[in-house]
């Protein structure tokens, strides 16, 4: 009963009993159909939610974690780290009540006047200009960076890290055809924690799913509390 009350009060869980039952059953189905895997107890809840969000079991084989990536993300969230994203879709998809648990601010810069002006002046993409602006303002330091749309954002971020920027965690999940694979490989060679979807597949939906999974783990003390996991 205490666990049920806690879940009702915890915004990372569904608000109603019926909603929780549907989510738990969805997770159970994913666990059953996914079968054995090599992910850790902290990694699997993230991959499972990504599969849950897309109904695509290929993410079981495409998702990669650097050592201690989840732990780094959880610690950053609990310390109130900002979440810097490459697309408004990610910002819109994140639940405000869940973000409020630890006071995590979501920052999306593509429409910022200085970013737009920089892109127009240089002829580059707004994504590249957004990373340059974030680096200059110190917004990358200790941040969780979510990239679900623009490989140019991820490539620019990789160059910023090579210059010394140190985000707490990078979710490298852009989708597309041009420079997508190269951008993800560049990230995986860097000395920062990362979670990546290999190949061309990815998207803002996956970043939102991964962040919600991280927020739930952080709120639950780093433990997968779903009934599906315990069965």
Automatic annotation (TrEMBL):
It comes from the Bacteria. InterPro entries: Cbl_synth_CobH/CbiC, CobH/CbiC_sf. GO terms for biological process: cobalamin biosynthetic process. It holds the Pfam family CbiC. Gene3D superfamilies: Cobalamin biosynthesis CobH/CbiC, precorrin-8X methylmutase. The keyword Transmembrane helix does not apply. One of its GO terms (molecular function) is precorrin-8X methylmutase activity. The keyword Signal does not apply. Pathway: Cofactor biosynthesis; adenosylcobalamin biosynthesis. Keywords: Cobalamin biosynthesis, Isomerase, Plasmid. Residues 22-216 form the Cobalamin biosynthesis precorrin-8X methylmutase CobH/CbiC domain. PANTHER family: COBALT-PRECORRIN-8 METHYLMUTASE. Belongs to the CobH/CbiC family. This is Precorrin isomerase. It comes from Thermus oshimai JL-2.
């Amino acid at each position: 009963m205490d666990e049920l009350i806690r879940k009702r009060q915890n915004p990372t869980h569904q608000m109603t009993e019926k909603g929780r039952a549907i989510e738990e059953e969805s997770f159970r189905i994913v666990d059953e159909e996914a079968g054995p895997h090599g992910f850790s107890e902290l990694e699997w809840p993230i991959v499972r939610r990504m599969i849950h969000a897309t109904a695509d079991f290929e993410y079981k084989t495409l998702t990669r974690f650097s050592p201690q990536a989840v732990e780094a993300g959880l610690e950053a969230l609990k310390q109130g780290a900002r979440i810097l994203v490459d697309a408004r879709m990610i910002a819109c998809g994140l639940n405000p009540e869940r973000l409020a648990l630890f006071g995590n601010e979501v920052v999306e810069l593509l429409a910022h006047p200085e970013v737009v002006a920089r892109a127009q002046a240089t002829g580059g993409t707004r994504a590249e200009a957004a990373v340059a602006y974030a680096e200059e303002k110190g917004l990358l330091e200790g941040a969780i960076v979510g990239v679900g749309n623009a490989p140019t954002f991820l490539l620019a971020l990789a160059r910023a890290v090579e210059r010394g920027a140190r985000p707490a965690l990078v979710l490298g999940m852009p989708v597309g055809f041009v420079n997508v694979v190269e951008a993800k490989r560049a990230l995986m060679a860097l000395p920062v924690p990362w979670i990546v979807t290999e190949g061309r597949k990815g998207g803002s939906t996956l970043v939102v799913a991964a962040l919600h999974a991280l927020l739930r783990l952080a709120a639950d003390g780093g433990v997968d509390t779903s009934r599906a996991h315990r069965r």
